[in-house]
Design goal:
Helix content is 41%, strand content 24%. Bound molecules: S-adenosylmethionine (SAM).
Length: 214
């Protein structure tokens, strides 16, 4: 059933290039990882997806959690338009998308959970602490922020990830945080951090930071 959900989401995009990207993205964060991440999301309530891209994961977590309302934000207006179109085509009503820069997020509103999937390395490093602080303000104690990113080590895996990032967005600078730097930063913002290692056969140094507001 859930793989059917993935298939129907990919088919909701008209552009074959985007469909290919979606298959690749769902190939990297495949069913097992969707479940590993999804287990930390609440079954209901407002969920914030910062850097939602084309909406793949927001559509998936909205479709598999009808009690959730997922709000996706991305700086790329074209991606937001495609996410809206895919949601309409799929008839998924518990998502909403808006174009916006994560750096402008001020922590307004309360969320049952928030997540950032492979976006922190695209945010300029000095903008990451204020963003994490704003997210902490919008999560009551006990609520979770999930940060999925890649570790800076081992170097060979980081270079592999860097090559793919550059192939996708050649002009976008990237900064990979080491888990030893990002964990204390998140803790200093008022989160208790559990590092969930996402072990992969592909050469990605994935890491999922499960951050509980304290
Ligand atoms: C690697 S993609 C990940 C997209 C999506 N989270 C996923 O996992 O498929 C990174 C996304 O971050 C977005 N992004 C980069 N900088 C951003 C910013 N400052 N504010 C909001 N979104 C940003 C990009 O437009 C892109 O959609």
């Amino acid at each position: 059933m859930r793989s059917d959900t993935v298939r129907s989401i990919v088919r909701a995009y008209d552009d074959p290039v985007i469909r290919l990207y979606c298959w690749l993205r769902f190939g990297i964060l495949r069913q097992r990882f969707l479940d590993e991440i999804g287990q930390y999301l609440p079954a209901s309530g407002a969920v914030l997806d910062i850097g939602c891209g084309f909406g793949l994961f927001s559509l998936y977590y909205a479709a598999t959690g009808p009690g959730r309302f997922v709000r996706g934000i991305d700086v790329d207006g074209r991606r937001i338009r495609m996410a809206r179109r895919a949601a309409a085509r799929l008839g998924i009503g518990n998502v909403a998308y808006e174009q916006g820069d994560a750096r402008d997020f001020k922590g307004d509103g309360e969320f049952a959970a928030a997540y950032m999937l492979d976006i922190v390395h695209h945010i300029p490093p000095d903008a990451v602490p204020p963003l994490c602080a704003a997210l902490r303000r919008s999560l009551a104690p006990g609520r979770r922020l999930l940060v999925k990113d890649v570790d800076a080590r081992p170097a060979a895996k980081r270079w592999f990830t860097w090559a793919l990032d550059k192939a996708m967005s050649p002009s976008s600078p990237v900064h990979y945080w080491s888990a030893d730097d990002l964990t204390p930063l998140l803790e200093s913002m008022g989160f208790r951090v559990y590092r969930h290692l996402m072990v992969d056969i592909l050469p990605y140094p994935h890491i999922l930071y499960v951050c509980t507001a304290v």
